Amino acid sequence: MTDDVPVLTIDGPSGSGKGTISRAVAHRLGWHYLDSGALYRAVGVAAAWADLDLDDPGALVRCAFDTEIDFRETPDGDLRVLVNGHDATDELRTETAGAAASAIAAIPAVRTALRDRQRAFRRLPGLVADGRDMGTVIFPDAAWKVFLTASAEERAERRYNQLKNKGVSVTLAGLLREILARDARDASRAVAPLRPAPEAVCIDTTGLGIDEVVDSVLALLPGRGV
Ligand SMILES: Nc1ncnc2c1ncn2[C@@H]1O[C@H](COP(=O)(O)OP(=O)(O)O)[C@@H](O)[C@H]1O
Ligand SMILES: Nc1ccn([C@H]2C[C@H](O)[C@@H](COP(=O)(O)OP(=O)(O)O)O2)c(=O)n1
Description:
Its EC number is 2.7.4.25. This protein is α/β, with parallel strands linked by helices. The chain has one domain (2-218): P-loop containing nucleotide triphosphate hydrolases (Rossmann fold), CATH 3.40.50. Helix content is 47%, strand content 16%. The chain is built from 10 helices and 8 strands. The chain has helices at residues 18-29, 36-49, 57-66, 89-92, 95-104, 108-119, 134-138, 152-165, 172-188, 210-218; strands at 7-11, 32-35, 69-73, 79-83, 86-87, 127-131, 144-149, 201-204. Strands 2-6-1-7-8 form a 5-stranded parallel sheet. A 3-stranded antiparallel sheet has the order 3-4-5. Strand 3 and strand 4 form a beta hairpin. The site of deoxycytidine diphosphate (YYY) has 16 residues, from helix 1, helix 2, helix 5 and helix 9. Deoxycytidine diphosphate binds at residues 14, 18-19, 36-37, 40-41, 98, 101-102, 105, 131-133, 182, 186.
């Protein structure tokens, strides 16, 4: 029974540190990791490759069902994402892909199409799942739920540094606008809106270092991750 598999969910807005913290905690626990956003981004990239109209929900739902999405960890620990057999990792991480994912993610049938793929990550010995609705919709019975936040300014600065380190040309002001727009869309949509589960532990990571946040999350799971 997958219900016996322990789950830690880490939800939050863009740039709050979900991916970084989730991967570090999963590594410390020896658990599997689900980057649910990568699934939505992969559908966005596949839709772009197929030149689909983002205003055509039917085509996007079919794309969500049909797109092959595979995750591969390289020997040096890098997480690569293959879309229909092609390595799309770098394209997936752009703000363009993030914006497309956010738009596509507002379509209820797309969320339904991706639901079982996300739940299939729930395998022993355990799962750390990051996203927007891990604790509210995908794994509502998760034993531990965390919701990360940070100021929009700090999140934009983090994303700015992240993308600059990858050689992506962006402006801090433009990123702040994009993050605020994505926050608003993700939190205001009718289906699975970005919000903490009632029982989630909310951590404002503004001014906190990565290790501090990782330790705070691990402290919620006594006796594990040591
Ligand atoms: N607490 C933190 N302090 C400083 N930088 C952080 C912190 N958490 C994450 N980062 C950095 O910010 C960037 C975005 O983090 P990421 O995990 O991708 O956020 P999210 O998955 O919520 O969008 C990454 O470069 C990451 O290393
Ligand atoms: N569980 C999820 C994960 C992502 N999404 C949507 C909404 C997000 O803006 C996009 C991209 O998510 P992703 O977590 O990859 O984006 P960030 O890393 O937080 O910038 O996908 C979602 O609706 N539900």
